[in-house]
Structures are given as structure tokens and as C-alpha cells.
Amino acid sequence: MGSCLLGDRKLMEAGDGKEHFPKQRQVLIFFVLLGVAQAASEPRHYSVAEEMESGSFVANLLKDLGLEVNELAERGARVVSKGKKMRLQLDRQTGDLLLNEKLDREELCGLVEPCVLPFQVLLENPLQFFQAELRVRDINDHSPVFLDKEIILKISESITPGTTFLIERAQDLDVGSNSLQSYTLSPNSHFHLNLQDSPEGILPQLVLDKALDREEQAEIRLTLTALDGGPPPRSGTALVRIEVLDSNDNAPEFTKLFYEVQVLEDSPIGFQVAMVSARDLDIGTNGEISYVFSQASEEIRKTFQINATSGELFLTQKLDFESIQTYTLNIQATDGGGLSGSCVVFVQVMDLNDNPPELTMSTFIDHIPENLQETITAVFSVSDPDSGDNGRIVCSIQDDLPFLLKPSVENFYTLVTERPLDRESQAEYNITITVSDLGTPRLQTQHTITVTVSDVNDNAPAFSQTTYTLRVRENNSPALHIGTVSATDRDAGANAQVTYSLLPPRDPQLPLASLVSINADNGQLFALRSLDYEALQAFEVRVGAADRGSPALSSQALVRVLVLDDNDNAPFVLYPLQNGSAPCTELVPRAAEAGYLVTKVVAVDGDSGQNAWLSFQLLKATEPGLFGVWAHNGEVRTARLLSERDAVRHRLLVLVKDNGEPPLSASVTLHVLLVDGFSQPYLPLPDVAAAEARADPLTVYLVIALASVSSLFLCSALAFVAVRLCRRSGAASGGGCAVPEGHFPGHLVDVSGAGTLSQSYQYEVCLTGGSGTSEFKFLKPIVPNFLGLGEERVSEANPFQG
Q: Do 590 and 674 form a contact (C-beta atoms < 8 A)?
């Protein structure tokens, strides 16, 4: 077998003993060198008889190894040997070396004696080797066997007594004393047996004692018995049939007594190995030569074939240098008269690189925890049955892997980690061990192993953002999902399972427990109650994420929750006050120009943004077109010059509306009084004027009389109209202001173009009798019948009634 080479520079530096390794590597090298030293010592010898059953006891190794019983399991003791078959096993509980299978010495070693099987005892922790040899003792389990059960000899009657005839010897697969020891011949009057020692063993020869007479006896039958020396002895027999021929005085002679040929082991079946040639001076049948194998083993007969006529030697099966390197063929040439001659053909099988290297894995650890220093992953051996450069081996792995190959003893290698592994960078490594020989062409074997890096909890959960901003509209429903935080953990298994939680707030006054909650499994945040923008515009929550490793690792993120304003507050009028007390009256001089600032409506809105943008609009006025309201600031100004015909007292209904969706509004009533000048010390109101009128009796009487006449006239007119209407329609109904047309003419006032109303409205008004102030009394609006959908409608209720 070839020796294994190592081309890796790091391994050569390790082999040179350069002292730049970490302490851990020095300790490992110490144990490796200790194992090499012990492995290089004299191997221990054990023996066992062949054909013993599997599980048979061979020896106890505790004393030889210098270990106690409990150390065998702790140090991972095992038996390893070359090749893939494990013929021995070690019982770690007792230290007994046992057979793993039944051993056949003849199959293992053939005729080689002694039959020795080398093996090693491997201790893994720390690494140590012990060399040992097992000798397989032979037992007499094979009887001598003649390959030809009938041996035919053709002997001329002219042969003189004393002539010897070589006959086929028996085969015995046993060795030593159990091998073939002697032959016996059945009693006869013509031949006796002569035994001759040779390198191949005992050769039986027939010696002619008495001249043959074909006419007296044309055929002689003898029994040849082969005996071995085993206890008990075994035997085999063959029939020797002698045909007596006529006289032949010339034996065949080969042109060469020794032939030497070289044959490549990949030669095809039918390939001509050699050609032998012999000649005979006789003529006729006595000169006709036939070629046969002499003293040929069964292996030779299966591998070669000779042409009996031409002497050509052919292959009948493929050669294998690793099984048999040389063959010695004895070829006999016999003429028709029974005379023979022999020669030797020596066949040397030439080795080719036809066997790829073999790799036998002894130890393999497929899961390695991350972050560990140099760790042994695998222990394996390599071998190549070829010879020379064809059997020299080089081992290597990929260059881009954090692993190293280190040579040991007897073509053993260890695969170790070069540096600590990181599962998050790479969780699995596919390592291809390439074993190649140095033959031509090079053959290689690749063995791929998969090493999985076990996870260690060395990574804390990481949020996708350090700060989250969530927005939720106020007046939300409780348990509303407002957002999700997410954290990932680069670890695996339980080390990567993330649990979310709310951390205590930095502001102890913040009622966090009543505001939000978080789903511990998926990080979803929920608002626990309805939020009010006017009370809380924003707040911050610290969220923690912890994994389930041991120990657990955690991280945190900041969540800002912004409450969005909703239009849930109507405008509130600050001025004029609307608290039910005496109304505030604004005074306007009659000499005021157009655009005169009467007053300013001041209002606020609790909302923010466009929900708090206010606009002002004049809804109703005693005299439309006289006053106007600025939409953006609420200023009430005169729209034109005042005249003497304008009423003294005015009431204005102003609408304040925000810009929300939907918009909310509020209304305010203004009282405006027209005066001649602000220097008047007293301005009589209508009530005061009525009181003065009562003070004058004459005026009172006139008023009473006038009222009576007016009442009679009004009643007569109403009765007349009612009778006429009843006659026409059978029923009369009416509404509005019922006043005598003659004395109290009705008027329709068109409010258009004033304020911000989108439509024109008409109001039916009446002058009240008995008053010199010409005060308007609004009864009801007459709404046009062409108002469309979506247009504002003014309430029929009269806000000025009173």
C-alpha cells in the first residue's frame, strides 16, 4: 500500500513543530505525538484459531493498554484496521477483544504462513494508537484434493525398468503440519511410488519396477492416495490409469526450458501470453506432440489456457496485480508414443493504476457547537492496493473551509476546525475529502461529509427600526390595532423565538397600562381605550424583545404614538357672551360710513389644524343688506350708509363654522341699536315711549278709539273674506300674519346678497300697531320651491321672535 502525502502548507508547518500554535493546539499535538510514539513501538501479538464463531474471545486488552475498565468508554476505545471489513471488536465493558466474524485463514492468507492480520486500538480522547497483530492459526479443515480424479499415463512398452513418471500432485489448502505430507499407491507388480521434495511440495513419481507388456496387459489401474498430517489426518484419492503403448524411443524436447514474459494486468481475455514449442524426432503418432499443463493449480487452470496443438498460451480471465503478481506454469509436451518433456513459463503481472484510493471513516461528529476552539470532527484512514507511485496517496479538502487535515500514524488523518465557527454566518459545511494517488493517470476518491454548526444563544433580538412612529385618530374604538413592531433573532430554535413586552415608561405619570397593550407573540400594539386629542396629543412607549435562550438576550425600541385630531368640537363663541344674561347691545351712529366696524365676533375651536379653521357667516338680519360679516375674522361692519328710514333696533344671527369633515358650527345673536350720536345722554327705547304715551290721556283715548274702529273694520273684512272662501272651497285654512290690509299693509322682505347664505330667502313681516318705532316682527320664512338637494335650509323657527 502506498504512503499518504500531504501538500497543505499549514499541515507541513504543524509537522515541523513551529511554536506559533495556541495552547490548545499544543496540547492536541502532544497527544498525537504520544499516540505516534506508542504506535511506533513493538506491536502486541495475539492469536486465534480459524473458523471460530463470531463473538469468540481472543484476548483481554486492559493489561496491555494499561487502562482500567471505566477508561475504555471514557476515552472512546475502538478497534480499527485497514480496509472496510471490521473483523475484530472491542467490548468496552470488559476490555475483551472479540471476533466480529468467522475467520477463514485460507481465504485471508492463502498459502502464506504465518497468517497475520495487523490492527490498531484507537483511543479518541486524547488521541492515541496501539499497534497489534492477530495471528490466525490453521486447523485441518481441508482434505487433499486431486484436480483430476483420473490421471492417464501413456507408457510405451519399451520403457526400461527404473524409469520414473511424474504424476499430478494433490492440492491441500492447509499449511504446516496440516498440509499434504505423503502419498501411497495401491499394491501392484509393475510400479512403486517415489516421493521427491520440491519448493512446491512433495512430488509423487511412479517408478517402473517391471517391464510392461502390452500384449499381456494393455491397461493398468492404480489408486493414488494423498495424506495430510493434521489431527485427524485427511486424505484424497485419484485413479491412475496407465495405457501401455507401442515403443517410442524419442521424447519431445522444448526449444527453451524457461520462458519469462510480462503481461499488463488490464490485458483482455483471449490475449496471447506466450507460445511454447517442442520437437520430437519420431514420426507418425510418436512424433505428434500435444501440450498440457503439468502440476498446475486451480488458479492457473482458471486463468490460462494452452492450445494442445500449437502451444499458444492464452488468458481466460482478467489478471489482477493486487491479488497475484506472478504465475509459474509447468507445461508438458507429450508425443504420440507417450514420451514427454517439460518447460517452465514464468508470467509476471505488470501493475497498472486501476484501483482508486480507499477512505475508511473511523470517527465522525456531524454536529459542532459554534464559538468553540479547535475541535476534532473526523478520524479516517486511507489506503491504495496499487504499488509504487500508483499507491502513494495525497489527501486534501477545499481551501475555503475553516477546517484542517492533520496526518497521524499508519495513514490515519484527523479533520479539525481551524477557528471558531459562527452558525449565523454559515450553518452547514459540506466538506469533500479528496484522496488521490500519484499514478498515471491519477485516480481519486471523494468522500463528502456534512457538518452542522449547532446554535448558541449569542445574538440578541434586533428591531427592524430603533424608533417607530404610529398614528391613531382620536375617539377610536377600544382594542384597536394601531401598529406592529417587529424584531428578528439570527439564532435558531428557542434561541430565535422572540417575546415582546412593554417596558416601564420613563414618565411615571403616564398611565401606560390603560393606554396600550402588546401581543407578546407577534408585537401587535392595541389601544386599550378611546383617545382624546385635546387631552393627550402624543406619548412614548418602550417595547422590549427577548429571546428564549439560556441566558435570554433582549433589546428595546422606542414607539411614538401620535394622536390625530378628529373634528369632535364645535366652535365656542367667546364674544358676545351667550350665557342667558341681558343681551349686549352694540351702538351704531347713523352717520357711520359704509364699512363701519360695528363689533367683532370672537370664537375658538378645541380641535387643531383645519378642524379649527373658523369661518363666519351672517344667517339672518332684521334688515338684509345693511350689515355684513367678514368670513375670516368675524368683524361685523355696515354694508352701506345709514338712512332715517332704517329701523332703530336690529338683530343679527351670525353662524360660526369650522373646516372639519363634517363641519361643526355654532350661532350667536347680536343686538344693534342705531343712534343719532354717542353724545345723547338717554335714548328712549320702545317700552319707554309707550309709557310716555300712556301718560297723556288724550293720546290714550285716541289710541283706544282708533283701535276700536280698526278692530270692527278688521273683523268685518275677515268675516266677508271667510264667507267667500267657504263658499268656494268648503273649507278655509290659512297661516301667516292676519292684519287688516288697509291699516297694516304687509311687506315681503327679500334677504339676498347679504352675508354668506347660498340662496335668497323671503320673510313675511308686519308692522305692529300702536308703536312709533316701526319694529319688525318676523313671523315665518317663505321658502322658494326651487331649492335643490344639498342646499342649506334656514329653520322655520324665528330666532328673532319676541
A: yes
